[in-house]
Design goal:
By secondary structure, the protein is an alpha/beta fold. Helix content is 35%, strand content 23%.
Length: 294
Amino acid sequence: MAIHLTKESKILVQGMTGGEGMKHTRRMLAAGTNVVGGVNPRKAGRTVDFHDRPVPVFGSVAEGMDATGADVTVVFVPPAFTKAAVTEAADAGIGLAVVITEGVPVHDSVAFLDRARKRGTRVIGPNCPGLISPGQSGAGIIPADITKPGRIGLVSKSGTLTYQLMYELRDIGFSTCVGIGGDPVVGTTHIDCLTAFQDDPETDLIVLIGEIGGDAEERAAAYIRDHVTKPVVGYIAGFTAPEGRTMGHAGAIVSGSSGTARAKQQALEAVGVRVGRTPTETARQVLSVLDSSA
């Protein structure tokens, strides 16, 4: 089983005919993802061949959904057009929109996330690597060949750390890995994924990756305390970051103890989450928990 994305998912790619869209559509298809169409109003009616796999291009998300039954869209469009693309997908009634685009203005994200919520569309991102259910489907840019199907669920703010933990735990495997993105406003949170993994009978353990800045990890800790019965192992990027600086796409200034890796570690450990200080140590913590529960 998996969360949000399965082998039955039918995927559209908004911006498929652009450079990034073409490259990652090719990779998704090679991984077995059921890409059923692209969306580009200026190239509607054409077909793009990916290693002898023809993929039609539609003029709109609604047209693509009507023709193929698509229930997921992956958005590879420039930041200036992302708001319109996600709004179009939500208005068409698609179930899941995975927004890869980096650099989306925060006020645009707020607007399209509100529209999506009202239309019942789940958004993952923006500024995220997407998600993958190994052996079933992948929507976005997460490599499909660095792990295998298994019973670990992973939710992460960081794309790079998503890949590293997937590789570190490749011999165990994952049910689903979700990169939620590191922007100040995102459509799917740690808590959303914790809820889904808790309800998934084929996820035995959850890995939660956070970063300095903000309070998302502290809120996740409170949710784990009250609602999660499965073991959770955590990692917080930024233990060596200096105070008073904005770091990468964590998007928040660390001041005093607020938003620091240490404060987040303490919040998680207070509710029983084991927290590693490096990705490799985090992987070892996962193996230790699995060994003790075997």
